[in-house]
Amino acid sequence: MQCNINDIIKILPHSYPFLLVDRVIECDPGMSIKAIKNVTFNEQFFIGHFPGHPIMPGVLIIESLAQASAICVLGKKTVENKVVYFMSIENAKFRKPVTPGDTLILQSNFEGLRLGVYKFKCVASVGKEEVAGATILAKLQDK
C-alpha cells in the first residue's frame, strides 16, 4: 500500500503544522510501514530551534514515527470514531541531527499486541544513516 498526502489526511486526525508524514512508500497494514517526512526550512519549529543552526527537535522525529505507526495500524481504511493514541516511548535514541533539506525515512515494524496496545520498533533515517529510533506503544480507541 502506498499513500500520498491526500490519503494521509484522511487517515490521521492531524493537520498542519502537526502532520509529520508526507508520503507512505510501502505499508503492509498492521505489520510494517516505510514513510517519508520531507524536512524543509519552512517548518515552524525551526524559528526557535535553533536560530542560525536549525535542527529538527527529537520529540518531533519520534512524533513522526508515531504517526507512521498509526497509519500502519489503520491502513488505508477510515475507521469511524477511532483514533490511535500514542502511549509511551521506550529506548529512544538520537544519533544525528536532522536539518532542513533532509528526507526523513520513517520505518516502523509491528512487534506485538497485548491488551489492545500495539508495540512498534521504529527507526528514522536520513539516507542509509540511522538518526533516531525508539519502541513506541499505541492504542486504538474511541474518539
CATH topology (fold) name: Thiol Ester Dehydrase, Chain A
Shape: globular
User: What's the number of extended β-strand segments?
Assistant: 6
Main sheet: strand order: 1-2-4-5-6-3
Whole-number tally of structural domains: 1
How would you name the CATH homologous superfamily?
A: Hotdog Thioesterase
Q: Provide the helix percentage.
A: 10-25%
Largest sheet: 6 strands, antiparallel
- Beginning-to-end CA distance, first to last residue: 25 Å
Range of strand content = 35-45%
What would you say the CATH architecture is?
Roll
Order of helices and strands: HEEHEEEE
Instruction: Just give the CATH class.
Output: Alpha Beta
Mean pLDDT: 95
Task: Pick out the low-confidence regions.
Answer: none
Main location: cytoplasm
Enzyme class: lyase
EC number: 4.2.1.59
Function: Involved in unsaturated fatty acids biosynthesis. Catalyzes the dehydration of short chain beta-hydroxyacyl-ACPs and long chain saturated and unsaturated beta-hydroxyacyl-ACPs.
What does this 3D model show about the protein?
- The structure is a single chain.
- The chain is α+β, with helices and mostly antiparallel strands.
- It has one domain: Hotdog Thioesterase (Thiol Ester Dehydrase, Chain A), CATH 3.10.129.
- The protein has helices spanning 5-11, 58-74, and strands spanning 23-28, 32-38, 82-94, 103-114, 117-126, 129-142.
- A 6-stranded antiparallel sheet has the order 1-2-4-5-6-3, covered by helices on one side.
- Strand 1 (23-28) and strand 2 form a beta hairpin.
- Its EC number is 4.2.1.59.
